[in-house]
Each structure stands twice: as C-alpha cells, then as structure tokens.
C-alpha cells in the first residue's frame, strides 16, 4: 500500500507536469482550463499538509527512485521551502478563477489550451526549484520555468510583447548560464551537487581551493540575482511585466521572482553561511547597497510612469529591494522581515496587478491618463486597489507595515540607525505613486470614455477581494506569516543546517 | 452595561454608523437621522464611561497581537476619556450644524461626506482609547486617510492641491519621524504600552531622549508645530463644518493629545524634567505661539486667520507639556477642551457668515454684528476664549499653564504667554469692533434678501449658540474636564 502523504514532495511536481503534458494535447481551451483549475486547487492543499507536517515533525527528505543522497536526487522540504511552496501554490489557486475571463478577453481562442499548458509547465518549474534539494536539479527546473515564461510573455497582445520576451530570453539565459557555471565550479571543488552535502564539504574545499569556491559563488549569486531582478540586473523586468497578458503578470510578480529569492536565501544561509561564512566576500554589503539603490531609483521611476502595469513593475523592483535588504542585513529580525515580505509583497502586488487586470478587461487600457474617475465606475475594484496600495505603502494595519517593522528593527539591531531611517522614509515614494493613482481614480471627474464601464464579474472580483482582505487580515494577525517566518529565520541565522 | 462593554460600543458605533449611512447615502432624511442617532448614542456611551473612570475603573480591550510586543489594544484612562468626550459631544453639535450648512449651500456628495465624517470620528475615538503607541499610530494614520476626501470635498483644482499638501505633510512627517521614533522607543524599552510614569526611565541617555522628543514633536505633524504647520491653512479649502470639527477639534487635537499622552505615559514627566529637556522644548513651542500669532495678525481671510490662530493655540498646549510641571499638564489637558469649544464656535460663526452673506474676508465684515447678532455674539465669546479672558474656558487652561511656568521659574514661557495674549487680542478685538461699531459698507446689503433677519438657517445658529454657551459654562463648572485632567497627572 502506497502512502500518498509520504510522496507529497514529488507529487507537487509530478501532478502539474503531467497535467501540462496533457493540456498540450488538448485543443479545447475550456477543457484545458478545467484541468488547470483542478490541479491548481489541489496543489495548495498538498503544500499546506506538507508544511504542517514539516512544522510539527521537522524536515522531510524524499529520495527520487529510492537512490540515497548524495548520489540520487533528494527532494528536501524544511520550513523555508515549505512556506514558499504554500505561497506559490496558493497564488496559483487564486489566479485560476481570474484567468478564465481574462484569458478569453486577452488571447486568441486557438491559444487558450497552449496558455494553460505553458502556465502549468511554469508552475511545475517553480515548484520544482523550491522543492528540490539538488543544486543541478534546481537548474533544470529553472530552465523549465524560464522557457515557459518566455512563451507566456510572448502571448501578450501587443507586438512589443515579443521584444520583451526576447529581452528576457537573452537575460534569463545569461542568468541560467552563470548559475550552471557556478554549480560546475562548486562541483569541481567539492564533487557533489546535493545542497546538504555541499554545505558540509564547502568549508574544506574553500580551504584547499579558495579561488574556485569564491568564483563559483560569485557566478551563482549573479546568476540568481538576474533571475530575481536585483538592481541593476533587472532591466528585463518592466517590459516583460508590462506587455505580458494580465494573468501572466500577476503570476510572475507574485511567484517567479520570489522563488529566485528563495534560491538566494538557500544559497547564502543554508550552504554558504554554515560552511564558509559571509566573510569570503563582501556580498552582504553589496546586497544592502544595491537594495537601497533599487528601492529609491525604482520607486522614483515608478512615480513618473503613467502606464499602471509599468508603474507596478518598477514598484516590484523596489519591493524586491526590501526583501534583499533583509537578506543583506542578515540578522534574525531583518531576515524575518525579508521572508515575511515574500508573502506580503506577493499578496499586495498580486492584488494590485489583478485590479489592473480587471480594469484592462473592462476598459482595454492601463494608461492612467484615460482612467480619470475610474473609482466611481468600478468601485469594488478600486477599493481593493486602494487597500492593496496601502499595504504596499506599509500603512499600519496592513501587511506592508509588518515587513517594514521587522526590517527597521533588524537595521537598528545591526547598529545602522541611518539604514532604519532610510527604509522608513522610502515609503514616501511609494505613497507618491500610489497616491497619484488614487487621486486620478477617485477625485478627478469621470472620463466620458468610461461611461458604461462597471465592476468585473464575480469570478474576477472574488479573488481580488480575497487578496485585499488578506492585506488587512495578515496585517493584524501575523501568526501564519511573521510567526512562521520568524521560526525560519531562527533556523537560518542559527547557522544550523536546514 | 459594564465599562468594557461601553468601551467596545463607543469604538464600534461610529464605524457601524458609517456603514448604515453609506447604505442610506441616497436618502437625505433617513441618512441625516442615522448620523444624528449615531452621534447621540456615541455621546451617551462616552458620557456613561465618565463615572466608572472617575471611580478608578480602567476598562481594557485586546483585539489582536500583531507581533511580539505589538498589539492592537484599547484601555481607557482619564486623558483619553477627556479627549473622547470633547470629540463625541462636538460631533453631535457639528452634525446638526453641517446638516444645516450642507443643505443651505446645496453642497454635492453629501452622502459620502457623512460617511467619511463618521469614519473620522471613529478614528479619533480609537486614538483616544489606544492602550499603546502602536494602536495610537494606527488610528492616527487612519484619521489622515479618511479625512482626505473631506478636505478635497470640492474636488476642484484648489481643493486637490490643498489635499495633496495635507496628505503629504501629515503622512510624510509620521512616516519619516514618528514611526522611526516609535520603533526606537520599542528597541529601547521593549514595550509600547502606555504606563503612568512612562516606560523610558533609566533606559535612554539625555541625548537619546532629546532626539526622540524632537522626532515625536515634529513627527506628530497634526500638532502643527512650525515649520510643519503648512497643511493646516492648506486644509482650509474644505467646507466649513469640516474645518470646524476636523481642523479645530478632531485632527489637530489628536496631534496634541498624542503629544501630551506620549509625554506623560511614554517618556514620563520626571524622566524628561530630570534630563533637562524643558528648556529647548519651551523655545520650540513658544516660537510657534508667537510667530503664528504674528502671521494671524496679517490675514484678511477669516478662515485662514482662524487657522493660524489654531496653530498658535496648539503650540500653547505643547508649551504646557514643555514646562514639564504637573499643573501645566493639567492646563494643557483642560486647554484641549477649552480651545476646542471656543474654536469650533469661531468656525461655526465663519460658516454662518458665509452661508447667510457669502462673505469670507475680514475687511468685508463692517457692521455684520448688527445683522447677525446671535452669530457675532457667539463669535465674541469664542474670541474671548482665544484671548484667554474670563469668563471663558480659555482662561482656565492659560491659568494652569501660567501657574506651572511660575512654579518652575520658566520665565521664557511666562513671557510667551503674556506677549501672545496681547497678540491674540490684537487680531480678535478689531474684528469685534468692525462687526459691532463700524457702519455697513453697503447699507442693508445682502442680509435683508434672505430673511431670517440676516441670520443663517436655524440649525447653524442653534449649534453655535450651544458651543458658545459651553465655552462660558466650562468656566463656571469645569468639574469633569478638570477632574479628569488632575487624575491624569496622578492627583485626586
């Protein structure tokens, strides 16, 4: 008798993979949607059961094909990646009902089945990157998710989507190449690809071949930074987010960069931290510096963007800066802030992009100049946008405040009050661009072209309102978000192997 | 009902009321009834809390634990109750007034206006009852956000410009200074709970204390200390009832309430006095008192003049804190109530003049006192309150602040009070002279056209007469506010 619970780690990858293959054979978009919906609603249940198991009994190790690690591929789930698995799968589940109408509105009918095929493949890749305990296997999944992402972006209606996808293809390939070169160098020095094993052997290897190890780590950090869009390796992101179909933008903004950030945390805190320590390179200082630049420069650019999708894309770059800031400061409080901001930013940014998706669906435009008074035409949509926007600013009582609270405390405990001050003040820029949208939407006279526009149907509205509700809920009750993040940070900063 | 149930009721009522008003937004009469009913019930609930609090009860309510040491919680103490009393009583009066004003001036969007008004009062009550600095900050920010639609009620370019200044200055100062100060206090003390005597005794160096006090003084932008006062005149683009309640009572008083409460229950008066913080705080507050009065002298627009007078009077309350003597803090707390009733009377009068005669400039007010005797009579009482002459509530606050300054031999503060009293007289008395003793510019003028003997509609006149009487009444029967203020500093 096979116990399905014992196979949860691999099921999280195999189920969407098989569904993607099956959807690839379908020609009927509706059937493909139904398949995708079932899979996407099953995955969070599996991920949550797995996380609960990990939190109560400790890390779960799954050996593919029964081969013992480090020879075989190991799937290893601890609190950190269990948490990210739940995040990715829940976002997927929330997006699905929204996708139904949005895809029909924005894509040609003969491409619907393809869309769901590529979407499931992308999800497979992301979940695989998170669940695997093997550095090379993570590369394979990274390629699966990247290749399908290029297709998804290129599905955008605007012809510029093709250029955006091509740009991302070039940059993404460079990132993946850097990653694989880094893995190769580490393999050369240690003779292993298993992450746990790497962590154990890297210390000795660094004593023998310090240059190989440092070079390998440098390649890895740069490769992953390209994927997670750390400034200035982020030039691909705004165009990709702006021209991809709305569903794809929501999905990528909430999950793809987060998974890459997970890999960075894993690399720095589970592999490098306990074996050779941060001292081998000034990586922490560099990350803090680049994050600061990202927060201020990207926010400033967002202030001057009038296309909502582009504005939010630049805002994503800034918000990623907050997360990497927590990674760079690297004490318990700051890391808690960074990890909890993974979730908090996913909630708020998915909500904002979803609201924009609703607006695009109803009006056909995301340009702020044509949306004066949209709040009176689509009150529920813009109410959700307002709440999610407050969350992005970090207003108290919303999720954004929690992230910043932990980050600022982390900066203070690190003995850097100026940093705490700079983090707190950066909210002003967020306020400037979100405030601009709110003023146009609620306080300008309604544009004539918007007559007859109203709130979208429930299938789009409910996921949006759920995200807005989560913005408030997890701003007040943080036992599931900051509570778990704090436990994860304890484990990571303690230097204990996961 | 028990005290805790009353506390919960008072917190929930305005928000529930806002929901009901939103549902009834399109039906003027039921909507107005809902507003008045909510306001009366709230008033009643807060009044019922007075007895238990005077008897020593301190009801508390815990809502959510956001992070370790960070909770959304409420607890009632005398100062909070005093502030809630002022806000809820004046909301009731203002509701009557604004119904008259909004209908007479045929303002658009009255439904949304009533909803945001209720939300603003709910935020004020939340701030008054906050049990820790985090909860206070939460409602402080909420108040800024829900008052923005009220400030920009006219929705024209000038209103949006004023609203932008309002939002940027208030949210900006609180995010850049107030919030970091709160986090700094948390790191130093390990708690944010309001505790009699403060939580920072022996935990911060004098230099650290100075820095934190500085960040709080200017971070609480609603207290409008110069140079962070620009939002207050900018917010005068709002309809007059909004200026009256929000910019004479709820918003600015939330600011000075925060300062008094933080000084007493976070820093601790003894801690601050021992660290020698009084001197420079007196300079900051005194400077604003004098400069704002000088600016007010030069204004011709009545509402702008009142706005600068508010800036100056708020600094009085901060001065009461800066003196760091228990008796001057009693003065500060009493002046929160005293200034509120006097200033709302003045704004009501300004709105009454605008409604009946569409006059906004002081130079146009020749002889208006003979056409609007009730309005200008109330205005005179409010003006006496501003100057601080007996028999008005304004006298009490000044008296206690002055006694504190004498006790601690803070001659700078004494000088500021004396000079500013003369300046206040300098910009209020000429208006009274103009209104009652100068001849009309254009004979019978607009007044006769509207009937009512030149007065505004009755709800407006009724409300300003009520607030003017309270201004006088508080001088003769200061019992409740004074008792609460004395309880705050630990007296009997």
Detailed description of the structure:
The complex is a heterodimer of chains A (498) and B (492). The radius of gyration of chain A is 22 Å and the shape is globular. In chain A, α5 (135-154) packs antiparallel against α10, α6 (160-190) runs antiparallel to α8 (210-228) and α9 (237-243) runs antiparallel to α10 (246-275). Chain A has helices spanning 8-25, 29-57, 79-106, 112-131, 135-154, 160-190, 195-208, 210-228, 237-243, 246-275, 283-303, 308-329, 332-363, 374-377, 379-393, 399-413, 417-443, 458-476, 482-493; strands at residues 60-63, 74-77. Chain A has a two-stranded antiparallel ribbon. Chain A is mainly alpha-helical. By secondary structure, chain B is mainly α. The longest helix of chain B is centred in the middle third of the chain and has 33 residues, at 157-189. In chain B, β1 (60-67) and β2 form a beta hairpin. In chain B, α4 packs antiparallel against α5 (133-151), α13 packs antiparallel against α16 and α13 (326-357) packs across α19 (479-488). Chain B has 19 helices and two strands. Chain B has a two-stranded antiparallel sheet with strand order 1-2. Chain B has two domains: 1-171 and 232-261, no CATH class; 277-492, no CATH class. Chains A and B meet through α16 and α17 of A and β1, α5 and α6 of B.
Query: What is the assembly state of the chains in this entry?
Result: heterodimer
Find the structural class of chain A using helix and strand composition.
mainly alpha
One letter per element, helices H and strands E, the order of chain A comes to HHEEHHHHHHHHHHHHHHHHH
Give the number of helices of chain A. 19
Q: What is the rounded distance between the termini of chain A?
A: 30 Å
Order the strands across the largest sheet of chain B as they lie in space: 1-2
Report the major sheet of chain B.
2 strands, antiparallel
Strand order of the largest sheet of chain A: 1-2
Strand content of chain A: under 5%
Q: List low-pLDDT spans of chain B.
A: 444-452
Helix content of chain B: over 70%
Number of domains of chain B: 2
Q: What is the global morphology of chain A?
A: globular
Radius of gyration of chain A: 22 Å
Number of strands of chain B: 2
Please trace the helix and strand order of chain B, writing H or E for each element: HHEEHHHHHHHHHHHHHHHHH
- Helix- and strand-based class of chain B? mainly alpha
Backbone CA Rg of chain B: 21 Å
Number of strands of chain A: 2
Helix content of chain A: over 70%
């Amino acid at each position: 008798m096979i116990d399905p619970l014992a196979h949860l780690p691999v099921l999280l990858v195999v189920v969407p993979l098989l569904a993607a293959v099956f959807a690839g054979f379908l020609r009927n978009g509706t059937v493909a949607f139904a398949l995708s919906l079932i899979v996407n609603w099953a995955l969070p249940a599996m991920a949550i059961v797995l996380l609960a198991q990990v939190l109560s009994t400790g890390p779960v190790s799954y050996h593919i094909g029964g081969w013992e690690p480090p020879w075989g591929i190991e799937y290893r789930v601890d609190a950190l990646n269990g948490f990210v698995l739940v995040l990715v799968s829940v976002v997927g589940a929330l997006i699905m009902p929204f996708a139904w109408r949005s895809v029909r509105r924005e894509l040609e009918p003969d491409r619907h089945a393809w869309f769901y095929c590529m979407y499931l493949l992308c999800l497979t890749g992301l979940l695989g990157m998170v669940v695997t305990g093997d550095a090379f296997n993570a590369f394979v999944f990274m390629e699966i998710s990247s290749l399908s992402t290029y297709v998804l972006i290129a599905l955008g209606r605007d012809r510029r989507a093709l250029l955006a996808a091509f740009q991302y293809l070039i940059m993404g390939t460079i990132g993946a190449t850097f990653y694989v070169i880094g893995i190769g160098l580490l393999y050369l020095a240690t003779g292993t690809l298993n992450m746990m094993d790497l962590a154990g052997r890297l210390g000795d290897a660094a004593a023998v071949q310090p240059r190989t190890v440092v070079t390998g780590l440098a390649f890895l950090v740069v490769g992953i930074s390209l994927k997670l869009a750390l400034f200035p390796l982020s030039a691909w992101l705004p165009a990709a987010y702006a021209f991809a179909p709305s569903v794809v933008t929501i999905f990528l903004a909430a999950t793809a960069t987060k998974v890459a950030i997970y890999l960075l945390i894993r690399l720095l805190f589970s592999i490098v931290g306990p074996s050779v320590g941060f001292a081998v390179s000034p990586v922490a200082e560099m990350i803090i510096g680049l994050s600061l630049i990202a927060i201020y420069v990207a926010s400033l650019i967002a202030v001057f963007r009038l296309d909502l999708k582009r504005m939010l894309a630049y805002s994503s770059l800034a918000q990623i800066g907050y997360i990497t800031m927590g990674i760079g400061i690297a004490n318990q409080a700051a890391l808690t802030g960074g990890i909890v901001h993974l979730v908090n930013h996913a909630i708020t940014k998915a909500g904002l992009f979803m609201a924009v998706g609703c607006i695009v669906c109803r009006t056909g435009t995301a340009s702020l100049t044509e949306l004066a008074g949209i709040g009176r035409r689509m009150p529920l949509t813009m109410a959700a946008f307002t709440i999610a926007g407050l969350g992005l600013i970090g207003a108290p009582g919303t999720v954004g405040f929690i992230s910043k609270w932990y980050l600022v405390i982390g900066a203070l405990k690190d003995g850097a009050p100026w940093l705490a001050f700079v983090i707190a003040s950066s909210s002003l820029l967020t306020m400037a661009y979100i405030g601009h949208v709110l003023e146009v939407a609620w306080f300008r006279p309604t544009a004539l072209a918007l007559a007859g526009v109203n709130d979208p149907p429930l299938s789009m509205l409910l996921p949006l309102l759920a995200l807005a509700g989560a913005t408030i809920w997890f701003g007040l009750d943080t036992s599931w978000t900051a509570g778990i993040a704090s436990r994860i940070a304890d484990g990571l900063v303690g230097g204990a192997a996961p | 009902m028990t005290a805790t149930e009353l506390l919960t009721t008072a917190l929930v009522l305005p928000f529930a009321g806002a929901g009901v008003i939103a549902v009834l937004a399109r039906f003027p009469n039921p909507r107005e009834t809902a507003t008045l009913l909510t306001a009366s019930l709230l008033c009643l609930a807060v009044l019922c809390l007075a007895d238990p609090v005077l008897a020593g009860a301190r009801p508390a309510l815990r809502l959510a634990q956001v992070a370790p040491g960070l909770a959304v919680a409420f607890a009632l103490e005398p100062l909070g109750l005093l502030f809630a009393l002022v806000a809820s009583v004046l909301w009731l009066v203002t509701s009557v007034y604004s119904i008259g004003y909004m209908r007479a001036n045929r303002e658009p969007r009255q439904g949304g206006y009533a909803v945001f008004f209720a939300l603003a009062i709910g935020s004020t009550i939340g701030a008054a009852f906050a049990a820790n600095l985090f909860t206070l900050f939460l409602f402080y920010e909420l108040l800024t956000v829900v008052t923005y639609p009220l400030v920009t009620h006219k929705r024209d370019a000038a209103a949006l410009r004023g609203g932008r200044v309002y939002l940027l200055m208030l949210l900006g100062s609180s995010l850049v200074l107030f919030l970091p100060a709160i986090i700094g206090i948390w790191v130093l003390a390990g708690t944010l709970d309001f505790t009699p005597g403060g939580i920072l005794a022996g935990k911060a160096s004098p230099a650290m204390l100075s820095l934190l006090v500085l960040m709080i003084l200017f971070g609480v932008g609603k207290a409008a200390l110069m140079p962070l006062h620009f939002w207050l005149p900018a917010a005068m683009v709002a309809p007059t009832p909004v200026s009256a309640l929000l910019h004479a009572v709820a918003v600015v008083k939330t600011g000075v309430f925060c300062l008094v409460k933080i000084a007493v229950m976070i820093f601790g008066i003894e801690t601050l006095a021992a660290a020698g913080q009084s001197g420079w705080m007196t300079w900051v507050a005194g400077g604003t008192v004098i400069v704002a009065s000088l600016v007010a002298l030069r204004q011709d627009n009545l509402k702008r003049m009142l706005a600068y007078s508010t800036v100056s009077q708020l600094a009085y309350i901060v001065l009461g804190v800066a003196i760091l003597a228990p008796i001057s803090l009693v003065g500060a707390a009493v002046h929160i109530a005293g200034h509120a009733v006097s200033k709302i009377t003045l704004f009501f009068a300004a709105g009454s003049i605008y409604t009946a005669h569409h006059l906004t400039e002081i130079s146009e007010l020749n002889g208006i006192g003979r056409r609007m005797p009730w309005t200008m009579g109330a205005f005179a009482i409010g003006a006496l309150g501003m100057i601080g002459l007996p028999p008005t509530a304004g006298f009490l606050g000044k008296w206690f602040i002055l006694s504190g300054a004498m006790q601690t031999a803070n001659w700078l503060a004494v000088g500021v009070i004396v000079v500013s009293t003369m300046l206040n007289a300098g910009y209020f008395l000429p208006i009274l002279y103009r209104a009652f003793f100068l001849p009309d510019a254009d004979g019978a003028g607009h007044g006769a056209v509207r009937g009512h003997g030149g007065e505004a509609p009755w709800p407006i006149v009724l409300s300003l007469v009520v607030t003017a009487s309270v201004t006088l009444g508080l001088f003769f029967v200061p019992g409740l506010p004074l008792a609460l203020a004395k309880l705050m500093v630990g007296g009997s």
